[in-house]
């Protein structure tokens, strides 16, 4: 098509000027489209690439040994303190009128048998009194012999009429009076001898001498108080002070271990008495633990005790599984996604190598057995089941 005139030429020039602009527009649109396609490809690639790191993370996750503790019958232990004492302490004093102590025959720590003489009191005066009474018996016996002979002689003469029956009756009365006086003398002598025997301080039963409070030359009487203290049969005990709530679970026959202060050795015993009352001031009661004699068990000494008071069903873990910080005790458990999770726990009985968990675990969790300190909450791990779980007590 041909254009003529200046106007047509001007129009033709305008058309020629617009053609480059259209090309640039198409180029711009093409560039934008290319950017959109590239961005879509980048986003598509980004959504797929995490799969590779996740698999790599799973491969690089640390392996940890886990245990499923279950629930075991764990004995409940109660700790207590108290004093050592003789189970049956026997004070020994003067039973008679007393006097001056002449000899002391025993020392503290010595074993004695029942009735053994522990000390003697001077009896020089009492011995003379006994001798006088013995002489009176001899006189009374002679009077009785004479009265009996006169009675027999009178009885042989009464039938011949030389002596009246009244005389015979008087002789019978004389004989009976002499016999009575003899019995009185004998009884008096026996009483004196018993009094003299009480001047010997004797052991009321077999046992161990704990204290001695008398020396030769000392004047003693029934008001002098205790001269010796004994432990009957040497039996010892610990009088453990228990809190009011612990008194409710301790029973007679419960086993216990007692450790005197300053000694590393423990002594086995059993609870033989639980006090029926609670001290209203301290809110404590006493459990008496019977112990066999040992020189290390000194009455009056201080000791600690561990009493086994029944059992409860609780999970048990090795001590390596237990962790603690300022927030308290805790363990790491592995959840269903194999991630470590912190779990707070309350401890029960602590043994040499195991710990009972009073609360915080049911026993069915997978618990990290060791190396929990190197884990973080939520960390992915590869759990490996332990070969054996902790055995019940």
UniProtKB/TrEMBL annotation:
Originating organism: Sphingomonas endophytica
GO cellular component: efflux pump complex
Entries under InterPro entries matching the protein: Beta-barrel_RND_2, BSH_CzcB-like, MdtA-like_C, RND_pump_MFP
Domain of life: Bacteria
Cited SUPFAM superfamilies: HlyD-like secretion proteins (SSF111369)
Family affiliation: Belongs to the membrane fusion protein (MFP) (TC 8.A.1) family.
The protein's name in its UniProt record: Secretion protein HylD
CzcB-like barrel-sandwich hybrid domain boundaries: 98-225
